[in-house]
Amino acid sequence: MTPDFLVTHSGGFHADELLSSVVLTRLFPKARIVRSRAPEWITSGADRIIYDVGGAYDAAAQVFDHHQRGAPLRDDGQPYSSFGLVWKHYGRDYLAALGLPGAHIETLHASFDGSFVLPIDLMDNGALSPSIAGPLAGLTLPALLETLKPVFDEKDPEAENRSFHTALAVARSFVEARIAQSAAKLRAEALVHQAIVDTGEGRILELPVGMPFRPAIIKAGADHLLFVVHPRDKDWCLTTIRRADEGFEVRADLPAAWAGLTDRDLEAVCGVEGASFCHNGRFIAAARTREAAFAMAELAVREAVANGTK
Fold it and tell me: What is the pTM of this model?
């Protein structure tokens, strides 16, 4: 059944119904969004999907609210918002509509649920406070979307709806970009895995292009790798490998003597013709040719091993 209407509440909007709308409008682009609390709209019918309003969670009737007593919980007891409910029932179809490979849909559905949907659910239900982000609390996605609401003394009766659709476009761009990044990581994983196989016991991983590499390295258990080399538009990049998803600690730093140097100064210190740049933080360097990048990488490996890196 293709709905004619996507019904959510009127008044002030929040991240959960905006993000639900991102999913539903992609799947049902001809359906009209209706923002209302009128009983004739928030009563279930064959021509509509109702979300974040309606006082019930009934997937068969296409009603996805979470404000009622006995509101739905996840298997681990954490609360759903309307976004979580819509993602649960429509997320896989949404990913397919974006053109993602069928083999990746379950993985992406689960990862997006845990990393993006769940935090929205928790914040909307008051189970997670934005204050946990400290000074960044006002820069969380829910907070930023709400800054698009009309100001309190706006007189135009259409301002709420205009602002909702403005915020919807912003929300859509974040959702689609996040999913595109996650999908790219899955595509990169196969390429990185093959590169790891080709590298064998070597310490330097060569990739055909810059791409996300750490998840595949961890998954492969390639603990011996210390540096990654890959081409860029006009030069070659040498980069370190972070030990964890968070923080900046790396398996091995680039040599301290290279820090902050460029071109001839760097060539003179490292002895590699074509060396062109090393970041002061010693986590990335560049060279004009593949040969120069590998020569720098080999020097960095020797120093790291000499300093006790296994």
Answer: 0.85
User: Could you count the other beta carbons within 10 Å of the beta carbon of residue 66?
Assistant: 23
- For residues 24 and 90, the answer to whether their CB atoms sit within 8 Å is yes
* pLDDT digit string, tens, across residues 228-264: 999 999 999 999 999 987 788 999 999 999 999 999 9
Q: Which amino acid is at 88?
A: K
C-alpha span between 173 and 175 (Å, rounded): 6
d(C-alpha 199, C-alpha 196), whole Å? 5
pLDDT tens across 136-182, in order?
999 999 999 999 999 999 999 999 999 999 999 999 999 999 999 99
Phi, psi of 159 (to 5 degrees): -60, -40
pLDDT in tens, 103-149: 999 999 999 999 999 999 999 999 999 999 999 999 999 999 999 99
CA distance 140 to 169: 17
Burial pattern 252-285, b for ≥16 Cβ within 10 A else e, equals: bbbbeebbebeeeebbeebebebbbbbbeebbeb
Residue 113: count other Cβ atoms within 10 Å of its Cβ.
Answer: 17
